[in-house]
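Q: Please design a sequence for this.
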């Protein structure tokens, strides 16, 4: 039998090698367009970063060694230009000589892989813009970096490969800007898990843009200027485009083979295309996802290799080996983090309208008492009907790989969350805990499934109606003071039985602790005491905090010293203090402790320390970086430096004297401000946002309560159509449609006044009302629309900006109570 294989890397080389192992007499020809076969695509980013130092190490085999071992006729620098299925021949072009010839086959295997997407943007062909698919691309990128002494790069697209490239360029000392059009990185993750990656990236001295795509490139002097959709411009010396790949199915399409809805080559369970003599494997094929039963393309090396073996067996022995589809198990190193996923995400299930439940845990990578334990966050999604595990995601530092593989095995073999409970793992303190994080996840999911715990999502916190719901923070008082969810009251789990009088039987109760277990215990107490509507926040405050924070850092590097190229690394130094002698330093090892452990340990040492004494705390709790700053702010102690490396946060703090504490501590001093906006006059609205932005910049928590005519200020320019009753329609006709239609309080002059004001503001480079508003939103200013006024005036939620929250007078009064300035405009 004569077999031709197109493509000589993951799928192609595996098929060829297996074919030879099962059929010594077959004539096998492997045709590869590039110069190399069987190379490590997955290692290419690490070669660029210098982690893999020897170029030769990228080549698992050379054409010669492969040929010698397998007796396969390897033809590199040869491209198959057409396939003629009727005559069972292919045309091949020798790329060295340009000569074309035809070759016949009995069976043909296609493994042409996938090609990077290169969007048709203005300036896309500017020198210095690269995609990466193979060794030749890698060589070009590497020599460009060396020859041009690259200092700045833009990575467009924050998928697995984009982030690997960002990390490796950063490792070379290049300042990297990551630009991602979606609201999150790494699409196989759900947002709550991606947000952990976002917060990590923000600490890594890379500029990081979300919700913003590139709209054009232009060369200016020696640099490439990328203009983003937001109109922001970023300058760099080179650009890596990593916005995705698509199946390289052109050849198959041209030869009349069936192509599926995803653009991949259609194959049956034996990996046979619509022509029985042609098989296909790898990144170019479309196959059914075994969980959601939708067609998909899997761009991963593992499935390509496994398909190669199945395909070879089917050619050699007849169609007996069945391919069952990929569950897309993937893993990547993102700076210090390991990020992994298997199966499908909650987002995909939602899109496919498949009912699901989810659970999130934050467990230690191994026993907390053994040094080096670092938390990992795990999310699973499963069927509410029978607990079938649909998918899992993990973000952590150590031990992520083995947990994702355990979870992947359960997904692959149609297991359930009950199987997670039963997984028997190898345990000794340096490796795991007696109950592995995967077991813990099983216990939690079972509690949810059998009704012992009702889950509450961080997404629902925003829309809590406090007139019907009590939000209870069951952490300790110290933890609560470091930061809590707005509107929550603090009743620690251990006090809950004694403070039942404070918990209404008539209201829905939402509980939360730092990561989940204390909330669960409190929920069990209340449920057994007759409270019927009791929920526990999934993933606790930690998940909520990761998800609701600002996710990107585009504003951080704007006007900083990095604008001067040879000083780009000045931003890395967070401390201007002299190096403290480590002799007098109090060293606190809080590694392995979960929140609030590290803070409590620090507090204890601070109480015993002398003013002026320096303390160094090491913690493996990723939230410690933010917590320690909040703690210092509340207690008035001074942060000298906070660093993070390989999952360990090191904070250096100086204990202050009583007088210094009194001067600097924010504890007990209300820094908050609130404004009631009653008017919809343009000038008053501008004044409101100027004050709000100023207050936010000075670190105040700012709340603006929009009532009556003030609601017109926060209307969207183009709202969705909403149905209104007669009075609502009448009010709607009489009121301004949005902020652009507001009038001046004086000198309106039939609409001329507002236009003049806007023109003067523009000339004087003062932000427009709309930008001031956006700026306020981005600075964390809280916009509350008065629900009573909305009802009276027939204003619907759909008409107001998405970031507006809703509340009544009690909400306003609660904010006003916390504020030291309250204005009425
Ligand atoms: P490929 O391995 O891409 O091989 C296809 C070959 O076909 C190419 O060499 C091409 O030159 C050749 N070819 C195409 N058309 C013709 C033609 N007409 N004539 C002759 N030859 C032709 N996957 C993971 O699971 N983990 C990772 O960490 C990972 N990292 C990656 C990093 C990078 C930078 C890249 C590019 C990919 C990475 N992948 C990773 C994906 C993985 O490499 C692919 O899924 C896998 O290689 C697909 O195998 P394949 O045989 O389908 O295609």
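A: Design:
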């Amino acid at each position: 039998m004569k077999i031709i294989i197109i493509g000589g890397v993951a799928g192609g080389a595996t098929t060829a090698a297996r074919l030879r192992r099962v059929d010594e007499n077959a004539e096998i020809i492997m045709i590869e367009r590039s110069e190399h076969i069987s190379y490590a695509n997955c290692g290419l980013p690490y070669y660029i970063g210098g982690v893999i130092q020897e170029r030769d190490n990228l080549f698992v085999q050379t054409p010669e060694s492969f040929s010698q071992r397998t007796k396969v006729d390897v033809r590199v620098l040869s491209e198959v230009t057409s396939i003629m299925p009727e005559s069972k021949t292919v045309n091949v072009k020798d790329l060295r000589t340009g000569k074309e010839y035809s070759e016949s086959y009995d069976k043909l295997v296609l493994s042409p892989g996938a090609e990077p997407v290169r969007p048709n943007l203005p300036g896309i062909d500017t020198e210095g813009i690269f995609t990466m698919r193979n060794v030749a691309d890698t060589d070009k990128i590497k020599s460009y970096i060396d020859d041009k002494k690259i200092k700045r790069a833009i990575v467009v697209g924050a998928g697995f490969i984009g982030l690997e490239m960002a990390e490796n360029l950063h490792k070379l000392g290049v300042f990297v800007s990551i630009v991602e059009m979606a609201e999150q990185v790494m699409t196989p993750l759900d947002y709550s898990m991606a947000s952990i990656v976002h917060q990590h990236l923000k600490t890594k001295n890379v500029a990081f843009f979300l919700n913003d795509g590139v709209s054009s490139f232009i060369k200016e002097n020696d640099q490439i200027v990328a203009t983003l959709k937001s109109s922001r411009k970023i300058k760099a010396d080179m650009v890596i485009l990593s916005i995705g790949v698509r199946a390289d199915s052109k050849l198959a399409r041209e030869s009349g083979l069936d192509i599926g809805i995803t653009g991949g080559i259609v194959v049956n369970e034996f990996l046979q295309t619509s022509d029985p003599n042609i098989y296909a494997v790898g990144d170019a094929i479309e196959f059914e996802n075994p969980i959601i039963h939708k067609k998909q393309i899997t761009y991963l090396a593992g499935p390509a290799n496994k398909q190669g073996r199945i395909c070879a067996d089917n050619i050699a022995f007849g169609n007996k080996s069945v391919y069952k589809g990929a569950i897309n198990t993937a893993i990547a190193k993102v700076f210090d983090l390991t990020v992994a996923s298997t199966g499908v995400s909650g987002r995909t299930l939602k899109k496919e309208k498949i009912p699901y439940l989810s659970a999130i845990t934050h467990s230690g990578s191994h026993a907390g008492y053994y040094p080096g334990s670092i938390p990992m966050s795990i999310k699973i999604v499963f069927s509410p009907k029978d607990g079938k595990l649909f998918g899992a995601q993990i973000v952590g530092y150590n031990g992520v790989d083995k947990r994702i593989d355990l979870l992947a095995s359960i997904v692959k073999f149609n297991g359930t969350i009950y199987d997670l409970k039963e997984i028997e793992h190898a345990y000794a303190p340096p490796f795991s805990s007696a109950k592995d994080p995967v077991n813990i996840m099983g216990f939690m999911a079972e509690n949810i499934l059998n009704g012992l715990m009702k889950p509450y999502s961080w997404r629902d916190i925003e829309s809590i109606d406090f007139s019907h719901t009590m939000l209870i923070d069951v952490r300790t008082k110290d933890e609560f003071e470091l930061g809590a969810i707005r509107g929550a009251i603090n009743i620690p789990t251990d006090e809950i039985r004694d403070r039942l009088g404070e918990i209404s039987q008539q209201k829905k109760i939402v509980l939360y602790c730092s990561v989940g277990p204390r909330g669960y215990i409190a929920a069990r107490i209340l449920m057994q005491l007759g409270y019927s509507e009791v929920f526990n926040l999934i993933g606790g405050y930690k998940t909520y905090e990761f998800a609701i924070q600002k996710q990107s850092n585009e504003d951080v590097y704007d006007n900083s010293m990095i604008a001067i190229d040879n000083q780009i690394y000045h931003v890395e130094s967070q401390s201007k203090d002299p190096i403290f002698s480590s002799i007098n330093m109090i060293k606190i090892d809080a590694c392995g402790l979960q929140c609030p452990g590290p803070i409590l340990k620090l507090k204890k040492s601070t109480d015993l320390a002398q003013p002026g004494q320096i303390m160094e705390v090491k913690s493996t709790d990723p939230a410690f970086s933010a917590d320690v700053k909040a703690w210092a702010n509340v207690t008035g102690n001074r942060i000298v430096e906070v660093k993070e490396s390989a999952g360990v946060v090191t904070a250096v703090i100086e204990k202050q004297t009583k007088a210094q504490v009194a001067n600097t501590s924010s504890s007990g001093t209300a820094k908050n401000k609130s404004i009631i906006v009653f008017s919809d006059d343009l000038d008053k609205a501008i004044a409101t946002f100027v004050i709000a932005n100023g207050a936010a910049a000075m670190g105040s928590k700012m709340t603006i309560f929009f009532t009556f005519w003030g609601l017109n200020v926060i209307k969207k320019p183009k709202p969705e159509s909403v149905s209104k009753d007669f009075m609502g329609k009448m009010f709607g006709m009489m009121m301004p449609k949005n902020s652009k239609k507001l009038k001046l309080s004086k000198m309106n002059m039939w609409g001329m006044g507002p236009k003049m004001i806007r023109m003067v503001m523009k000339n004087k480079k003062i932000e427009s009302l709309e930008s001031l508003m956006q700026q306020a939103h981005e600075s964390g200013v809280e916009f509350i629309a008065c629900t009573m006024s909305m009802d009276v005036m027939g204003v619907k939620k759909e008409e107001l900006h998405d970031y507006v929250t809703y509340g009544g007078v009690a909400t306003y009064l609660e904010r006003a109570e916390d504020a030291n300035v309250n204005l009425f405009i």
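Q: Thanks. Anything notable?
A: The first helix runs from residue 10 to 22. The pocket of flavin-adenine dinucleotide is lined by residues 6-7, 9-12, 31-34, 41-42, 44-45, 79-80, 111-113, 132-134, 161, 248, 251, 282-284, 299-302, 304 (CB under 6 Å).
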